[in-house]
Amino acid sequence: xxxxxLWRTIKIYKAQFISMIIMIAIGIGIFVGFNMEWVSIxxxxxxxxxxxxxxxxxxxxxxxxSSQEADLVKSLxxxxxxxxxxxxxxxxxxxxxxxxxxxxxxxKDVSSFMVIKGEEYDETSLDGIWISDKFxxxxxxxxxxxxxxxxxxxxxxxxxxxxxxxxxxxxxVKDEAQLMPDYAKHGFAYVxxxxxxxxxxxxxxxxxxxxxxLSKKEFKEKVDNAFGKTCMILSKDEVGSYSSAxxxxxxxxxxxxxxPVLFLLIAVLTMVTTMHRITVKEKTQIGTxxxxxxxxxxxxxxxxxxxxxxxxxxSIIGIGLGYxxxxxxxxxxxxxxxxxxxxxxxxxxPWFVPVIIVLINVFLTFIGFxxxxxxxxxxxxxxxxxxxxxxxxxxxxxxxxxWNKFSFGTKWNLRDVFRHKAxxxxxxxxxxxxxxxxxxxxxxxxxxxxxxxxYYNDAMNYSSHIFISEEATTEQRESIxxxxxxxxxxxxxxxxxxxxxxxxxxNVTHDKVRFPDKNNNxxxxxxxxxxxCMRIADNYHLKKGDEFKVSPYGQSVxxxxxxxxxxxxxxxxxxxxxxxxxSIGITDYKIDSVxxxxxxxxxxxxxxxxxxxxxxx
Length: 617
Prior knowledge:
Elements: H1 2-12, H2 14-51, E1 57-60, H3 67-74, E2 79-92, E3 95-105, E4 114-118, E5 128-132, H4 133-138, E6 146-151, E7 154-165, E8 186-191, H5 193-199, E9 207-212, H6 216-227, E10 232-235, H7 240-281, H8 283-291, H9 296-329, H10 352-373, H11 380-384, H12 408-419, H13 421-459, E11 464-468, H14 474-483, E12 487-496, E13 499-507, E14 515-516, E15 522-523, E16 530-533, H15 534-540, E17 547-552, E18 559-567, E19 573-576, H16 578-583, E20 593-596, E21 609-614
Parallel strand pairs: 3-8, 5-7, 13-19, 16-18
Antiparallel strand pairs: 1-9, 1-10, 2-3, 2-6, 2-9, 4-7, 5-8, 6-7, 11-20, 11-21, 12-13, 12-17, 12-20, 14-15, 16-19, 17-18
Helix pairs in contact: 1-9, 2-7, 2-9, 7-10, 7-13, 9-10
């Protein structure tokens, strides 16, 4: 009998039931989807890093490392594996305007790759090329094709033997100025040490990649002591692929903790108010059932089942919606597919998600239980009486002359608000939650538009960025600046505490590069101090007028800089003028970048120019 009544009541109040199911489904769907997203990113990227032996540390030296120096590092306690490593952006003879990060790793067990299709890697091969499968697909490069890579005066030629993926290039951008990968224009390729040795008269490995379980502090102490100088050491947390993956995981955790809470809160509030209204309307039937001899337990179970059914149906739909959200984000053609190059795209549900879904359903059932329990108090005769709202005292406003000026509807609403304080509070929370989501979503779009305008339209006030070759003479560098009427910069790798930062010397005389402050107003660089980015200021608790110390890698000298201002920056860097650099004793630097209004196509190729990048690139 009660089973038939259950479905009959659901049919009568189908609009209310459908609205509650939709709210719960949306809340659980977002909860499942966003938490599946970050866990799936974490597990899929970890799988790639493990399979390709992603290095824990990188020691960088622009003069290169000898095999003896690699052996020296390998002999240190706590070091598992070491490989000399080279990665340079090379042009492809057969594909003009296309580039690859041409890579050589001496030890295949460090910073290697996964073969997706083709032959396994052979470190003794004299003609083998293992190229990015995504880059190959975009440019219709097939196994067996012959390719020639050119970097400066060196040409490496061979045959494509395999299509691969690599943890080092999971997020493959040409340089720091490029935010998103463009696999049609830039990829990566590995060649064997044997082919590199056969193609180049001099073996140049500017990097040692190391696998070690040591902390960075321990690792740095051992390496610095071994070399007898301050070495430039990057942990995997400072490498683009790894740090970006971890950033996506942290962002997903934040989204998975905030958005679902808002939606689930709104769903719970909807359940509380709706179940209360349904039980109020059903009060006479509850009294009738009680008068007919049904026990309170049976009636409680019956009405609690409404909330349980709503929760179960909403949860099932929500889990399906969550899987769709997770798949939409985490698939080769989804938003992450345009950003990350992964060998597999499996979806994983974190262990706590089913537990929380069960707890949510228990809580929803408890809400239904409490809603009907109030109606069962007293005798059957009491239960049969219509629901009467609780008595309340006169409002303060009723004692004023203003009350008589209100319409009947306004008076009713004010009394109803104070009569049902809990329901009013829940409604307010629901409205606040909805407004938070609405404002945040629209604000995020405006923030991104503002970011693009500030950094890429206004701060980057140039057409082309010229990268100067390392072999260029001082005269050639100055000639390029003069010829293209541009501003220039030079970057020095420095150590500040345990962090690796960039000290950028800018000579801005043509307003081609600008630096926004906290309020997005552009700073005019002065010669009386250094301009630090906001992240450095926050991490080291620095403010204008403070002093701090930095040390260039490979040198024992320590420079003391004064904070002249704090700026916004997409990277962690410190900016000074050539005049201030000279005043504190920094003179050993070379111009490495020129910023000009000259179009990329109008810049002539020369041995002194390594690469030219347009603003649109």
